[in-house]
Design a protein that fits this description.
The protein is α/β, with parallel strands linked by helices. About 30% of the residues lie in helices and about 20% in strands. The chain is built from 19 helices and 24 strands. The strands form 6 sheets. Strands 1, 2, 3, 4, 5 and 6 form a 6-stranded parallel beta sheet that branches. A 6-stranded antiparallel beta sheet has the order 15-12-19-10-11-16, covered by helices on one side. A 5-stranded parallel beta sheet has the order 22-21-20-23-24, sandwiched between helices. β21, α15 and β22 form a beta-alpha-beta unit. It is globular. The relative contact order is 0.10.
Length: about 600
């Protein structure tokens, strides 16, 4: 079987590309081909020239940037000195995961596909681009692509004599085997587990490694404050949250992000435990069954762990389950009607119904399990059914120049209604909003580099940040103010001046000192709605002078829905009006700004 192998690599920011890569591997293994999913930066890139068949699934983040776990690979593969015949013996297929509401939709996959061909690689399938905005989500592209890939595999790897494709009706082996321990054997669990307070916050003991905090070794940051910065009668609860990072050895700059590892809600944990009939005080350890899998890092799941810790801090029980969840769940019900419905949800034909049942309503894993009461999930398969809780990223809204031992974020508490009775809640924002400072509470955090790259000189800077999009700009303004740098121009938008003008006092103080020029758009304070793009057009003389004559940088951050395009259209109109350029010439002008990083966008959906 040594020659029956291929490489499945992924670049994933939120876990979706990793999930698809794992799905590809399952299909590959059903055809008796060896494979395991591996992050691109974990793959020894020097081996690439020796590979016969490579499958890459990659997402695009920020402004067309690669995910964090493929940045090293990305820098290497784009090196100009690589021979054009480097991959002459390599066949490959690329699947991109993106969101067409972003300006640089699937940019990484497009560029990677083109680059692999430039290096001599042979593309055995057309480039596939999945779109989150499709009515059926990314699966609308992923399904046919995997089907095509599966057919192609049989051409490159014909089945050995006497072997057949492993039926999808056979239960796959689990990744892990759980070994349960008697209480006396697990007593040291209280030393190795993070202790859990009665409101779900983690009281962490920092690890021995104090110099390199990351996802596998987070820093336990003390919660200093958790202040609501919108009025109590305002529809949106926005928090200004401050963390003490003294002793972390963190060094962040404007534009960086604070990663936070949340926990599940206490009430959901209790419901999940009751629904599955688990003993929360039972302790277990994991051993590998699937040799291609990896054990979870001990920072997330201690070697000997309680069931309560697993449910509260590791399993994403409030996430919307993916399609494979229903496929695997169908093996664990004794009820034929349940089995039939679960199989239908897992089928290609059932995707519209699954979308209506699950994705449109944001029905959670816990709620699905409650809807199928005859399901009895073996404990070992919890890790195959339910992905781990993912960390959340927040733009840092402070600067080390002003608060060297602190990191601040602006966080909108996510709550919304669907047709389901129970209100939908963002796991991290709601969990964090309920934590109280000065109670010894510590939150697992680490720093990641952001996608915005601010200038280090005193060149003029134009910042457009409606809502919580202003967060990275607040940190940059603080940094510039600390050095006495002027020429800071901020366009901020919100609904009402007296309801959600988050950082008014701080910004007004900079304005009085002549260090900030502030333009505000309060959309609901007059009959006709006023947004940041309208304020930009009002300042066309000033902005054209700053951009065209003084080389100003323009930064835009906030919701990806319509704002980035509306703001870009406003700047384009200024270029047309003041530069006396045609529509096409204005597009070229903006494009040059983008290529020189003088126009940058960080947007999220």
């Amino acid at each position: 079987m040594s020659d029956r192998r291929l490489v499945v690599l992924y670049g994933s920011q939120t876990g979706t590309a990793e999930d698809v890569a794992e799905r590809v591997v399952r299909e590959v293994k059903r055809r008796h081909v060896s494979a395991r999913p591996l992050a691109l930066d974990h793959y020894p890139i020097a081996n690439l020239i020796q590979e016969k068949f490579v499958i890459i699934v990659c997402a695009t983040t920020g402004q067309g940037d690669p995910p964090d776990n493929m940045k090293t690979f990305w820098r290497f593969i784009l090196r100009r000195n690589l021979p054009t015949d480097s991959l002459i013996q390599t066949k490959f297929a690329v699947l991109g995961l993106g969101d067409s509401s972003y300006q640089k939709y699937n940019f990484v996959a497009k560029k990677l596909h083109r680059r692999l061909r430039q290096l001599g690689g042979e593309s055995v399938l057309p480039l596939a681009l999945a779109d989150d905005q499709h009515d059926l989500g990314s699966d609308a592209m992923i399904d046919p692509w995997i089907n095509s890939l599966s057919s192609l595999l049989l051409q490159f790897y014909p089945l050995p004599p006497g072997m057949n494709i492993i039926s999808a009706d056979i239960l796959p082996i689990s990744k892990y085997k759980a070994i349960f321990h008697r209480e006396s054997k697990a007593q040291h669990d209280t030393k190795t587990n993070n202790s859990i307070s009665n409101h779900g916050a983690i009281i962490l003991q920092n690890g021995a490694d104090t110099t390199n905090h990351n996802e596998n070794n987070p820093f336990a940051a003390e919660l200093l404050s958790n202040e609501r910065v919108t009025q109590s009668d305002h529809f949106q609860d926005v928090r200004h949250v401050k963390f003490n990072i003294q002793g972390s050895n963190f060094s962040y700059k404007a534009g960086d992000v604070l990663m936070i590892q949340p926990s599940n809600f206490h009430e959901d944990v209790e419901e999940f435990i009751a629904t599955l009939g688990l003993d929360p005080n039972q302790h277990f350890s994991l051993t590998l069954i699937d040799t291609d899998a990896r054990l979870p890092p001990t920072s997330q799941l201690p070697h000997i762990c309680s069931v309560r810790h697993l449910v509260e801090n590791y399993l994403d029980i409030s996430g919307v389950p993916r399609r494979y969840f229903f496929e695997l769940l169908s093996f664990f019900t004794s009820d034929e009607m349940e089995k039939e419905k679960l199989k239908e949800f897992a089928s290609s034909e059932g995707q519209q119904e699954l979308f209506s049942y699950c994705n449109r309503l944001k029905r959670t894993t816990l709620e699905v399990l409650q809807d199928f009461p005859k399901v009895e999930v073996p404990f070992d398969y919890l890790f195959d059914l339910i992905p781990p809780l993912k960390p959340r990223a927040f733009s840092i809204a402070s600067s080390m120049q002003k608060t060297p031992n602190e990191a601040h974020i602006l966080m909108a508490v996510v709550k919304y209604k669907t047709k389901l009775v129970k209100e939908r809640k963002g796991v991290c924002s709601n969990w964090l909003s309920k934590l109280h400072p000065h109670q010894g509470i510590r939150v697992p955090v680490w720093i990641k580099r952001g996608t915005i790259s601010f200038p280090s000189t005193d060149v003029p800077v134009i910042m457009v940040g409606p809502g919580t999009g202003c967060a990275p700009f607040n940190g940059f303004i603080q940094q510039r103010v600390s050095y006495g740098i002027k020429d800071n121009f901020l366009f901020f938008g919100c609904r009402n001046e007296d309801k959600d003008f988050f950082l008014e006092a701080e910004w007004r103080s900079y304005v009085r000192r002549g260090l900030l020029t502030l333009f505000t758009a309060f959309s609901r304070d007059q009959d006709e709605k006023m947004y940041v793009q309208h304020k930009i057009l009002e300042q066309e003389d000033l902005l054209w002078k700053l951009i065209d004559k003084q080389g100003a940088y323009v930064f835009v951050a906030g919701n990806a829905n319509q704002m980035p395009d509306n703001v870009k259209d406003a700047f384009k109109q200024i270029v047309i009006n003041k530069g006396l350029l045609t529509d096409n010439e204005a597009d070229s002008y903006i494009s040059k700004l983008e290529k020189s990083r003088h126009y940058q966008v960080e947007a999220w959906s």
